[in-house]
């Protein structure tokens, strides 16, 4: 094994199994769970010489955008405290670190580690990266093994990497991006090689030259919703101008199905979660609630109901109910099937704009005048204040909407539904002095190109 990560201190999100620490998923359901094995990603990290220094707080089972749904309590964004001068240190604002990989992003931002692993199902690496001012990569679906990662929504879950610089993230990604025969959804050697060949001729920076001469950057017009803070648009424009100055061309593009992505994501993710979390029944896995005094639970369904009601938090219970409903015979066609149709539209929309063809399709076609990557804001706002799941007191309806927890994912879920690589890179500070991230999205398997464009932005 190479020891290319030797001395790198890495924190691991608490839904990734480690034999040397508990793996709680930030849930009372698993508060004492210790895995007998390391997840493949942890084994690879250790094999490459990295020090796994501890587990990072997260939203319960990865469900959330603000890291407020955790049995361990919320994660406070360390950005201001870490960068504050002594005079303002006493006065730092308590803002969210983002979720669900809030502990991973916060530990990197606070300098407690060099890199961290998170998971990204609909934005949980990119959103905290943006809020905390660090780099966060959600790789192409299937490139990094999910074996030993506690499933939230398998068809979307990806292990992602957070770090202070694109270079550190790339070093970790290079170690983790290998085929794992234990993960049935892992991309095969053949598919990886096809993607490498497909992206090569279109990759103007393949020679590692800092110039982006010839790179075609698409700017998706649907990624500027009314809730987007104006200072974020300004920062994105500055980044685009900088990339143009070093040879890239900017092309407005459309991903029309974006408007339906958030609703489709929450139906699909909840449906899969309702099925995945069924195993935590207090019988085979997880916390078993003691019977109330004087009552003997007679049926295993009593144990099941009592254990789950007592140990799953509100957000998780809400998703299980929503997901179970979406999968019932009565609702299936209107909800789950419709959401899957939207997912197909989104994939088609992306394939229509990339000039690098998708190696996942049997007969791919791609527009000659397509783009190599897309660039858009990572989030609609800077980190929201902690407390109240983003619904902080506001008299202005629009800004209350902009703070709602689910809306925070509006920029990140389309790439998740399409399984594409997406990298959030810090690009400046908003008018409130908190970090703003921009995201680079590429065709499936073009993670290296996405990282190279990210390097040009930082
Ligand atoms: N915020 C999204 C959700 O709550 C995404 C979470 C994630 O990527 N794990 O489902």
Automatic annotation (TrEMBL):
GO terms for cellular component: glutamyl-tRNA(Gln) amidotransferase complex; mitochondrion. Its EC number is 6.3.5.7. SUPFAM superfamilies: Amidase signature (AS) enzymes. GO terms for molecular function: ATP binding; glutaminyl-tRNA synthase (glutamine-hydrolyzing) activity. Pfam families: Amidase. Keywords: ATP-binding, Ligase, Mitochondrion, Nucleotide-binding, Protein biosynthesis. It is an enzyme of class 6 (ligase). One of its GO terms (biological process) is glutaminyl-tRNAGln biosynthesis via transamidation. Its main location: mitochondrion. Residues 8-451 form the Amidase domain. InterPro entries: Amidase, Amidase_CS, Amidase_dom, AS_sf, GatA. It catalyses: L-glutamyl-tRNA(Gln) + L-glutamine + ATP + H2O = L-glutaminyl-tRNA(Gln) + L-glutamate + ADP + phosphate + H(+). The active site is at 13 (charge relay system), 100 (charge relay system), 124 (acyl-ester intermediate). It is found in: Mitochondrion. Allows the formation of correctly charged Gln-tRNA(Gln) through the transamidation of misacylated Glu-tRNA(Gln) in the mitochondria. The reaction takes place in the presence of glutamine and ATP through an activated gamma-phospho-Glu-tRNA(Gln). Belongs to the amidase family. GatA subfamily. Subunit of the heterotrimeric GatCAB amidotransferase (AdT) complex, composed of A, B and C subunits. This is Glutamyl-tRNA(Gln) amidotransferase subunit A, mitochondrial. It comes from Scleroderma citrinum Foug A. The lineage of its organism: Eukaryota, Fungi, Dikarya, Basidiomycota, Agaricomycotina.
